[in-house]
Amino acid sequence: MQAFRFEPTRLPPDAEALRGEVRDFLAEAMPNRSAVHRATSWSGWDPGFSRKLGERGWIGLTWPKRYGGHERSAFERYVLLEELLAAGAPVSAHWVADRQSGPLLLRFGTEAQRQAILPRIARGELYFCIGMSEPDSGSDLASIRTRAIRQDGGYLVNGTKVWTSNAQHCDYMIALFRTDPNAESKHQGLSQFLVPTKTKGISIRPIRNLAGEEHFNEVVFQDAFIPADSLVGKEGEGWKQVTTELAFERSGPERYLSSFQLLLELIREISQDPSERGALAVGRLVAHLATIRQMSISVSGLLQQKIDPALEASVVKDLGTNFEQELPEVAQMLIDCEPSANSAQDFEQVLAHLRQIAVSFTLRGGTREILRGIIARGLGLR
Amino acid sequence: MSELAGILADQVARLLGDVVTKDLLDRVEKGLWPAELWRALEENGLTQVLVPEDQGGAGGSWSDAAIVLRAAGRHAAPVPLAETVLAAWLATRAGLAVPQGPLSLAPVRRTDRLALARTGSGLKLSGSAARVPWGGRADHVLVLAPLDGRPHLACVASGAASVAADRNMAAEPRDRLRFADAAVLAAAPAPSELGPDGLVPWGALVRSLQMAGGLDQVLDQCVRYANERSQFGRPIGKFQAIQQQLAVLASHTAAAGMAALVAARAAETGDPGFEIAVAKSRVGEAAGAGCAIAHQVHGAIGFTYEHALHFTTRRLWSWRSEFGNDSEWSVRLGREVAGRGADALWRTLTQR
């Protein structure tokens, strides 16, 4: 049995050349970014930064040029993303559009949608959120109830989405709605739509997270009318499309670097005079990190060969998010200090931030248990 | 995968798959030397995969050798294949002729001391080395020992040592060899690949590869068993409790495979210290977690001698502690990373 296709993969020279360019760019664009801001990584919202990346041609890197893309390799995209994340760049504004919504439109969107939307994403001007989960539908995504019912010239939407990250700042939502409430199974009768968040009848309410931050939202649709041409792909094919979209989400390198800043601060803490337990903990974490990174590069290799990496990507995401979550646990266990957002010490500040938000790392974009279910299916157990 | 790698993969899988049966493993644990298996490995050139072609070897790279050693681990090949492949390679790097037959290496422990001395016409070896893998069984032992203050690699017949037989948890020979003015057959200055840590990093590399293969095998056995064994009216693999456990095992197995193969690839560049430390640390942890899951999923039958699972899990438990356990390598890695400082970490990782 050969369940997985992980091959050690070398990044080609053009990808390594891009690494230097990205480092130079970041050194200039964010010379004094604080440790705790770097630790916010891909939840740092900064449209100005996103537009600068767009100007450099670093959004939509692999997309066709006719849609504003740059037709560069999956390896180059990998290097760009890992450099941005390792540096803690504020990539949140364009992140979902670049990673998920743009590729979805490329695959399933109409020509008009692609031409209207993709070049503006690539310029760093249009930001997206994802309307999937609902109050009664989390891991059981196919049970969603928000309806889009056909009306003259379009659809009338009623229902509620939750945990919609950055909905309050975004221009568009890619939303999954039920278009046929009478379909035989819950996986049928679902459709995806491109919905402007400013549409009349949509109200967005931020939900404070346990750390007091407002990233995710409740989005209520009350007789919100969306035109017929906002349908993405085929009506009724929403489930198939959404699983493809989630595979884009899982295949990136961002799923192991969310706590990277804390590893750096931890090394700074112990590096003066490393105790054996400090060296043991850091060495073990670095062994995990180095291995996950090589696995992630291997997934980029599959993408570059146009092989669907859904299974391997799930393995990397499971290992990666567990690593991200373990970092604050190890750091807190190891270093005797009181984590505090107001501390003058970078370590204490970064730990306070990640200690609180790390619980979300194995929830967002599909829980650990859902990922492991996908892996089990890949093993032939389901 | 190179052309040679493809050929090797087929050859070694076929050969070991056919010959290394549960019955054979059973008999080897009772003391049998599997001469036929060894002969087949030699005849197919698998013992000299790293020896250059002009010296009669297969001329393979470390990535090619990785395929052979991972397969050796997967099939629990009850012979010193890893030791022979490594010793033969080191011999050629030192410019020594590669002896025929099974080979071993010493010392495997950092604390053991062996010394070479000049006699009238040649050299003699003295000292004691513990836990030498297959030390009494190998025909020759390649020994790293100082001569005139410089490390040398010397070839001695294992018959020249007095052997105190011992075994690891998997019943593989791990013998104490004592040399008292033993005749040295050939010697040369140690190759540059052998740094201050001697044979240990290279031993850690081959054990990491074997362990990656062992985990592949354990995962296969678990998936097969979970699909066959029924309880509550359905295969236990249909239960989420089992599926979640096996997904964890699969992720550890995939990580172990990647860490070991990347270390083998790094060995081709001549400076694999970082990657070997990563591999032995990561693979060791995977072995601990993986074996625990495998036995839990197998239930009581996996705890019997009758079932074949233990031939692999006992090897994984043994190999984890050989040539440095995961903590030992983690500490070394951690000290190195701390020494370079936080700001060097990302550059270190991305330069490899």
Detail the topology: elements first, then pairings:
The complex is a heterodimer of chains A (382) and B (352).
Chain A: H1 13-29, H2 35-40, H3 47-56, H4 74-86, H5 92-108, H6 111-122, E1 128-131, E2 147-151, E3 154-161, E4 172-178, E5 190-196, E6 202-208, E7 214-227, E8 231-232, H7 238-250, H8 260-271, H9 276-304, H10 310-334, H11 346-357, H12 368-379
Parallel strand pairs in A: 1-4
Antiparallel strand pairs in A: 2-3, 3-7, 4-5, 5-8, 6-7
Helix pairs in contact in A: 1-4, 5-6, 5-7, 8-9, 8-10, 8-11, 9-10, 10-12
Chain B: H1 3-19, H2 22-29, H3 35-43, H4 62-74, H5 81-94, E1 103-106, E2 114-118, E3 123-133, E4 140-147, E5 150-157, E6 162-164, E7 174-183, E8 186-189, H6 200-228, E9 230-231, E10 234-235, H7 240-267, H8 273-298, H9 309-320, H10 326-340, H11 342-351
Parallel strand pairs in B: 1-4
Antiparallel strand pairs in B: 2-3, 3-7, 4-5, 5-8, 6-7, 9-10
Helix pairs in contact in B: 1-4, 4-6, 4-7, 6-7, 6-8, 6-9, 7-8, 8-9, 8-10
